[in-house]
Amino acid sequence: MQKSIVLTLGIAMLTLFGACKNSSQEAIKEKRKEEMTNKENRVSPPATATATIGTNTVTVNYSSPAVKGRPIWGALVPYGEVWRTGANEASTVTFTQDVTIQGQTLTKDTYSYFTIPTDTVWTVIFNVNETQWGAFKYDQSEDALRVQVKPVMVETNTENLSFSVVPDATPNSGIIRLNWEKLQLDCPFTNVGN
């Protein structure tokens, strides 16, 4: 009799524990769903950088994490791993005109913008799957273009990750610029057909 009471209590506790665990998992899922739909409440808020270079409107959509006193390069952002280049969803770049980057053509479209940082050279990746959360399902076979770019350390500290699209040397060339902490990464492009 006593064994059956202990067994019944044990089963009841396991059921209660399972229900609590499922409830906790559901709460986490609900919070993640709310974050995805209500972007204004995110710790790393959404941001957009856009400019028209020649007749090409270039737009970068990203989420902007803050340094908050943390070591960034080789720590929060590990070296040698694919990074979404921001927070939350993968950052995206949209070109309304074909461009060349380091002599390679990239057709007008929207691309996810990934990077693989190292302390000396970064790989910049334009990937055709522009609707990814982070880099968790990144697939190299979906890369449209990869180029190597050297980062530059600058004097000015940028607390929140920031992209900008700026003109370059000619009216038909521009730069996708990333600034965060004391690092600047420029990815130059030239419009095709102007």
Biggest sheet strand line-up: 1-2-3-6-7-8
Number of domains: 2
The run of helices and strands is HEEEEEEEEEE
Number of strands: 10
What would you call the structural class? alpha+beta
Q: What number is the mean pLDDT?
A: 86
- Rg of Cα set: 22 Å
- Calculate the terminal CA-CA distance, rounded to whole Å: 88 Å
Q: Identify low-pLDDT runs.
A: none
Q: How much helical structure, as a percent, in the residues?
A: 10-25%
Shape: elongated
User: What's the number of helices?
Assistant: 1
Major beta-sheet overview: 6 strands, antiparallel
Strand share of the residues?
Answer: 35-45%
Characterize the structure shown.
With 194 residues, the protein is of the alpha+beta class. It folds into 2 domains: 1-37; 44-191, no CATH class. It has one helix at residues 2-37; strands spanning 46-53, 56-63, 92-95, 99-101, 104-106, 109-116, 122-127, 143-149, 152-167, 173-191. It has a 6-stranded antiparallel beta sheet with strand order 1-2-3-6-7-8, with no helix packed on it. A 4-stranded antiparallel beta sheet has the order 5-4-10-9, with no helix packed on it. β9 (152-167) and β10 form a beta hairpin. The protein starts with a helix and ends with a strand. 23% of the residues are buried. The model has no long low-confidence stretch (mean pLDDT 86).
Summarize the structure.
The protein has 194 residues and is α+β, with helices and mostly antiparallel strands. The chain has one helix at residues 2-37, and strands at residues 46-53, 56-63, 92-95, 99-101, 104-106, 109-116, 122-127, 143-149, 152-167, 173-191. The radius of gyration is 22 Å and the shape is elongated.
